[in-house]
Write a structure and sequence with these properties.
367 residues, Mandelate racemase, ten-stranded mixed beta sheet
Length: 367
């Protein structure tokens, strides 16, 4: 039996590859907490999570002061027990983003260790449901772009082989959103999938109005049309919208997803491995979705989600937003719009430790 003897905690800021603005916020920088777990037999596991510009120092403090010390002496194979114990240890701050992001950094490290110990890629350890996953891009669809750039970048994505593209909505007037999207649809044709994301910008009445206006464009989904804590509003919208409703990036526990599923408040589950608290709860949500015949299309973190999507038969899309290029040595493999999970044991993320060490803003050692 292995025992955890030490943890190394890092915080790294990664600037976005392009300007990213949606209806309510801008992506300032990816604060990236990284956890490296060291065991007494020399084995290790590496995990991470992220923010889009705020809260990173709070995640690090929670890891350093409250979570990491709980792991010393634990058997890293007992992933489920550790996740449950850490959740209960931080019960006063759960459910919430900071706690979930901190739990995720540890939990992904434990699963990395577990897959490496089994000498298997994570996607095969978890079931190996599919060897390729379709990819859509979000990198050309930001709200600040003029219509001409929106069309140009979506056409470029189509030429590059992507199977679809997600565009932000939330302009002051519905007619402007419709005009921008109609121009894109006219350019790419009917077979190229278009998704839209409102980033929780609308009231229920406005979301219903916009969904009606956008319906003729044959969209794959309307994402986060109203605030994520408005379960009743999403249920009302899902019952009346001709566009499938997608939610998940702003939900932080399996229980919150269960409420959405029970109330039939969405058709697309966008569970985010970092925001839900790690791989352990991510699997629960994805399997729950499968039991209810719902698709899983996770939010962000493509370098990790490519393996999780490949493990689940109901994972239908991977979101393309490259963000780890500066601290890894090999990007994920995408050919003709299909992503292939890594063949290396563990998470399969090829960390560039020289670059990581140089860019670390914070380092802590727990033993």
């Amino acid at each position: 039996m292995s025992k955890i003897t030490a943890l190394h905690i890092y915080l790294i800021n990664l600037p976005p590859k392009t300007v990213r603005t949606d209806a309510i916020q801008s992506f300032v920088t990816q604060e990236t907490p990284i956890v490296r777990i060291i065991c007494d037999d020399g084995t290790e596991g590496i995990g991470y999570s992220y923010t889009i510009g705020t809260g990173g120092s709070s995640v690090i403090a929670l890891l350093r002061d409250h979570l990491a010390p709980q792991l010393i002496g634990r058997d890293p194979a007992c992933v489920e027990a550790i996740w449950r114990d850490l959740l209960f240890h931080t019960h006063a701050t759960a459910v919430g983003a900071i706690t979930s992001l901190a739990l995720a950094a540890i939990d992904t490290a434990l699963w990395d260790w577990r897959a490496k110990r089994a000498s298997l890629p994570l996607w095969q350890l978890l079931g190996g449901a599919q060897e390729q996953v379709p990819v859509y891009t979000t990198e050309g669809g930001w709200l600040q772009l003029p219509q001409s750039a929106l069309v140009e970048q979506t056409l470029a994505a189509q030429v590059a082989g992507f199977k679809g593209a997600k565009l932000k909505v939330g302009k002051p007037r519905a007619a402007e959103d419709v005009r921008r999207l109609q121009a894109v649809r006219d350019a790419v044709g009917d077979e190229f999938e278009l998704m839209v994301d409102a980033n929780q910008a609308f009231s229920v009445s406005e979301a219903l109005r916009r969904a009606d206006a956008l319906a003729p464009l044959n969209l794959a989904w309307l994402e986060e049309p109203v605030p994520a804590d408005n379960l009743a509003g999403h249920a009302q919208l899902a019952a009346h919208s001709r566009i499938p409703i997608a939610v998940g990036e702003s939900l932080y526990s399996p229980g919150q997803f269960a409420d959405y599923v029970q109330q039939q408040a969405c058709s697309i589950i966008q569970v985010d491995v970092a925001r839900v608290g790690g791989i352990t709860p991510w699997l629960k949500v994805a399997q729950m979705a499968a039991c209810h015949n719902l698709a899983v299309c996770p939010h962000f973190l493509m370098e990790l989600h490519v393996s999780l999507c490949s493990a689940m038969p109901n994972a239908t899309w991977l979101e393309y937003i490259p963000q780890l290029d500066d601290i890894t040595t090999h990007p994920i493999q995408i050919t003709d719009g299909m992503a292939t999970p890594p063949a290396d044991a563990g998470l399969g993320i090829a960390w560039n430790w020289s670059a990581l060490e140089q860019r670390s803003l914070v380092r802590h050692h727990i033993s």
